[in-house]
Amino acid sequence: MTRNIRFVLGAAAIIAGAWLLLSNIQPFFTATKSNHAKEEVVQAKDSIQKTKTEENVLYPHRPKLGEKIGELYIPKISSTLPIIHGTNEEELEKGVGHFAGSVLPGEDDNSVLSGHRDTVFRKLGKVGIGDLLIVTTSAGEFTYKVRKVRIVDADDKTVIVPKPRATLTVTTCYPFHFIGDAPERYVLVADLVKK
């Protein structure tokens, strides 16, 4: 009798073990498949994000100081001006200077251009709200529309602050006919309206 009990208990243990094994093996394979699927989704998202980031890079190479990066066309005054990277005196002698601490034209944020009022921006005072500023660079043509005209103190740093969208800020000394170092700046703030 003891033998029969041992046999029954042994068979019950084998059946219970088989049942436990079979009931736990299916979730194991499901979890493994689920993890592989999650990994594939993450890899796909990373690939798409990388592609989007690469597509959004307008300028794969940043310019050097003194390098011509494009042209600024101001239809209101029929003026086409070279844009030079940097705003030191030697860059400003060649054309409109691009403030190196700002983004390049066409990029999101604030791209700042400056020029002398007695050379490149002699007629800038005729440009106002609603007028267009068209910048052409290696990344394409970018059309901005003047949203605001400001006159600020010469040491006002608000012209170079970051902006939440693609903005072009153009500055020159003011008043235009002032003799000597002008105490103020004439500032045009324009929003990107066409790439």
Task: Kindly report the CATH topology of the domain at 67-194.
Answer: Sortase, Chain: A
Describe the global form.
Answer: rod-shaped
What is the strand content? 25-35%
* SSE arrangement, N to C: HEEHEEEEEE
Total beta-strand segments: 8
Describe the main β-sheet briefly.
Answer: 8 strands, mixed, barrel
Number of helices: 2
What's the pLDDT, averaged over the residues? 84
What structural class is derived from the secondary structure elements? alpha+beta
Pick out the low-confidence regions: 44-54
Distance between the termini: 92 Å
Question: So what's the CATH class of the domain at 67-194?
Answer: Mainly Beta
> What portion of residues is helical?
25-40%
How does CATH name the architecture of the domain at 67-194? Answer: Beta Barrel
Radius of gyration: 33 Å
Order of strands across the widest beta sheet?
A: 1-2-3-4-7-8-6-5
- CATH homology group of the domain at 67-194: Sortase
Overview of the molecule:
- Helices cover 30% and strands 31% of the residues.
- With 195 residues, the chain is an alpha+beta fold.
- The chain has a domain at 67-194: Sortase, Chain: A, CATH 2.40.260.10.
- The chain has an eight-stranded mixed barrel.
- InterPro entries: Sortase (IPR005754), Sortase_D (IPR053525), Sortase_D_1 (IPR041999), Sortase_dom-sf (IPR023365).
- Keywords: Hydrolase.
- It holds the Pfam family Sortase.
- One of its GO terms (molecular function) is hydrolase activity.
